[in-house]
Amino acid sequence: MPITSVRLNSFTVFSGAELTFSPGINVFIGKNGTGKSHLLKLLYGCHSIMRSRNLQGPSQAKVDVLVANKLAGLFRPDGGAVGRLVTRRRGSNSGTVAVDADGKRLVFDIGLKGNRVTVRSATWVPPSPAVFLPTREALAMFEGFIPAYQNRELSFDETYYDLCVMLSGAQLRGPRGEAAAALLRPMSKVLGGRVFLKGGRFYVSQPGSGQFEAHLLAEGLRKLASLAQLIANGSLAESGTLLWDEPEANLNPALVRGVIDVLVELATQGIQVFIATHDYLLLHRLSLIAEHRGSQPVPPMKFFALSATRGMVDVESGDTAADLSHNPVLDEFAAYHREELALLQREAAQP
Predict the structure, then answer these.
(1) Cα(261)–Cα(281) distance, integer angstroms
(2) Are strands 94-101 and 5-11 parallel, antiparallel or unpaired?
(3) Domain that holds residue 52
(4) Tally of domains within the chain
(5) What is the pTM of this model?
(6) How confident is the model at residue 294 (pLDDT cuts 50, 70, 90)?
């Protein structure tokens, strides 16, 4: 049951926005501060809330508290006051979030003051977990992180804690393990080995090279190893949702192609993908795949450009990156090439 849309009213940088998603891959682009990470965290939080709510079955009053606590953990407003997530504007004293998943919904209001959330509809039942990968990888910090987070006040938001809990799960065996192995094949090609947990630490075993502590791997490879572990232990499975903030961070451009292949394969096998990116190669290779499908099975895709106008964010969407009139990634590369051309012309004109 993929997420089909989200409607935001007076939520952080969004005075009013409605986004309709693809069941395959969804790509967010925009300058810093336009709400890309906010969208990813919100979608992840709503999915996690409804997943735990339907597993535990709390009352309506408890759902209100569940939403407020999750938002506070993900966004970390001062004092846990989720009212700080409401857009400050004249005549507005609350914000609204409405997430739709094939007709099933989660709709709630956030009061401007304090920590008040009122859930108006909660019929969504996610069949599989959602996984959020933040910009910083978690394998190197995994050892001892879960008890430290539970017992001390750390500066990390809750996405890191949730990710470490998911990473700690044992790898699957039997039929579910075979299904996970099918999802792992493209990832194993990129990573060049397998990931395992031993003595509270993660290791990567690479044929011909032996075993390496995760700390000894490059950070970009640790991010890929985290994704491999989440697939192997069933945290990310068919009908699940992957939300990845800046997959390209700390990756060599040669690895970006492999990440694209992994994202396409995951979406092809029934995982809904949301990513936020600043990377030209990642954005335009995905767009090229969407534009020139050929005979290969290609998942549906949608591209979203977020742009700020007078302090508020507007959203446009298209089936390819070429459909977007606001493309800061392409604009910056075009500006660079214009500067390079001007320099070459200036040097050529010199005697």
Answers:
(1) 13
(2) antiparallel
(3) 1-128+238-324
(4) 2
(5) 0.91
(6) low
